[in-house]
UniProtKB/TrEMBL annotation:
Residues 551-877 form the Disease resistance R13L4/SHOC-2-like LRR domain. The keyword Lyase does not apply. It comes from Malus domestica (Apple). Residues 171-346 form the NB-ARC domain. GO terms for molecular function: ADP binding. Residues 6-89 form the Disease resistance N-terminal domain. This is Disease resistance protein RPM1-like.
Amino acid sequence: MASPPLEFLTGKIVSIIENEVSLIGGVRDQLDEIKRELLTMKAFLADAGKKGALSEVEKTWVENVRDVSIDIEDIIDEFTYQMNKQRSWGPYTRAFRQMICFPKHLWERHRIATKLHKIIRKIRAIRERNQCYGVDRIQGIGASHNYDPNRVRIYGESSLFFKDDELVGIKDAKDKLVGWLLSEQPERSVISVVGMGGSGKTTLVANTFNSQTVKKHFDCHAWITVSQAYNIEDLLKIMIKELFRAAMEAIPLDINNMSYRGLVEMLIKYMQPKRYVIVLDDVWDRELWSHINVALPDGAHGSRVVLTTRNEDIASFSFGVRSHVYHVHPLIEKEAWDLFSTKAFSSWPDRSCPQELEHIARDLVGKCKGLPLGIVALGALMSTKRLKSEWTRFSSSLNWELSNNPTLEVVRSILLLSFNGLPYRLKRCFLYFCIFPEDYVVKCERLKRLWMAEGFVEQVRGATPEEIAESYIAELTCRCMLQVVQREPSGRAKTFKVHDLLRELALSISEAEKFCAVYHSQEANEGCKDSHRLSVRASNGEFQPHRDMSKVRTFFIFSPAMSDSSSLEKLPSGFKLLRVLDLKYLPLAQLPDDIVKCFNLRYLNLRSTKVKELPKDIGNLHNLETLNIKNSMIRSLPVGMVKLKNLRHLVMYHYPAYDVKSFNWLDSTQARFDISKLESLQVLDGIEAGGELIKQLRHMTQLTRLSVSNVRGVDENDLCKSIESMRLLQFLGVKTSNEDEVLRLDALATPPPLLKTLILTGKLEKVPHWFHSLDSVMHLSLHWSRLKEDFLPYIQTLPNLNKLVLHNAHVGNQLIFQTGFQKLTELSLGNFPELNTIIIENRVMPSLRTLRIGECMELKQLPDGIEHLTCLQELNFIDVPSELIQRIHGEGSLDRSKVKHISDIRYCCKIELGFWAWKRL
């Protein structure tokens, strides 16, 4: 794959040629030629990405093309930097400077032209060497990075011969599959088993398939390994051979000469009167079903088709018949340890782990995160190592071992299969996870904005970049390349991380592709000078960068322990070509003065830093798309921000003290300029109302997310008119200036049609009349509303409500959920001073999975009807009377039987020194 993205680089050159004619004198021809060469390079690298194992000459060729593309980006960005300086002068200043400083400008242009000439000569030299060594074009189909498809196929099919004592943690899954296979349902059905590469899908299905109970149930059976590159005629021939061989019948001699039609007719004739089971292992393409389905007769004999896949989209595909999906989950800790021990210590005394190795061994097992493939391979490899020093050395160099140790080649090949199967655009997005530390959890919104800033998100007519980026996340998740850590109540993925072994693979590919450099504090000195993306692990808050940071485009710092005395209180300077700067949680007090010269900066994350103010000249960052100052010490935006015409995401709310008992749980930021001038803004999160701001919002019809605080009752008409104008709004948060200020919203005729989240903080004298029409709302939060009337009937029939948060929302001693709330999965009740009774009628909230109750000191018994909430999985109590806890604490307690179906019950209580801690019940 290319690094940097060549289409992005080509686009920059085209923009220069088309829009900067007056500033490119003397270098236009060179730019045109380089643009043509880039298009050729892009095609070449696409071919390289499809090639199998490359020869050494081809590897050198690929590396040369990548290196020269990086050199081109350096020169183009430097050239753009010089043009931007001239553009910022204005016509009179430009004329004056060109007259006074003409020799200097002439020298700058000559220097850049010389560099472009040098690049062109280098490109021509690459082409000449290619012709000399006979590699004008890379041929072949497959995948790069030494992926061996034959090795993967052999490993998959070897699962058919595993012994039962070699398998761990599959009993329940096998019972589920056997139940589907042997059910009395007469129609043919499809069973999909889905999971990431190496998760044990094939092993599970093979063990089930080989069961005598299963085989006796069917008249004929066949196992077909599909993989990425398949030929449908070859698969049909294999199926015929498998069917005839299993039945101990003579294989037809003429099948090798048969056409697709003849093969299909033979299969239909053979299987039509029979009950069959066909396994399609390692399916990558949904089109396979349309090609092979016609050969699988759909009689009423109870036939079954089983497929394994890494792709959720394939598993959930509508096959036109009854279908079942089984998701393979990682092994739990005990199962993973047992499997590793079986492989690693089978020849040791007592077949158990020596005490001096246990800590290292458990760390290695932890790296595998329950992935059977990795556990088995590591266990087999470590079985040959006896010394503690060998174990320690291996553990510290796992990244290198994964890429170079022949014993782990099958692990590498299977994981590479997933990576190489990604479209080019997704390969870059996946490799981006090597920037983050191990087990780092990344929010969906952050990831989308970073990809946009990097130029990874393609432009698609009729869709926003945010929508396209979200589709990338969905595709990586469906392909089991990302692990969803947390989901919204609606089911939408909220946070992600990458499996450790996949991350190790990404690191090795990233190093080879020169995609990103990852340094620890003691290493990040000379090495960072040639890196475009730099991710620093600043242990103990120390980082000593190389003095030249001019080539760095993306800069992240991560530290497990940032102290107030950290050496990172000041950031290194020299980032003139910076595109992404992420300083989340860094105890940084001030940005470098030259940050405003980073004309290319698109993403600036100052979340939870100690920065107190933004530079006055921040308006010079014309390309800035995302600015995040959440939980920083910034409370006012400079007037210069009005110039940020490309700003799309402005996140600036603060949590001074997240305590639902406090009205001031959320704070915001002032803007002393006309906020409506930011015409590209999509997200305006945490703005403080004041002056003309409420009226200005009326013109921001493009907003998809808005949260505004310090609202007063007199703002009702202006606020409601502004909200009505925002037809694209999906998130709305409104907070009054203080707890006694009434939040008046009756002037709003109808809510925005796409609204999904509504958070209101402030006193409500009555329920807004439009509450009943919140048809699209999935999340509703009411804080400090203190409604006197029963508001539940207004929202109980909302068709899409998934999450309901009520904090001090009602004045009274009871809440009665009489009907409705059919899709509600999460309910949070907090800070109800008088509440002593909660009643949940039968058949209300049938989908509820999470219930939280806190700060309700008069509530001394469980909600009446909690036993009817059969889907409830999590029940949390925070600061509630001890009487309530005692009623469910222990098997013999009064109300324990009412919550016995709930798997996770916890309460938060005070422990020593006034600290709070969670305890299980």
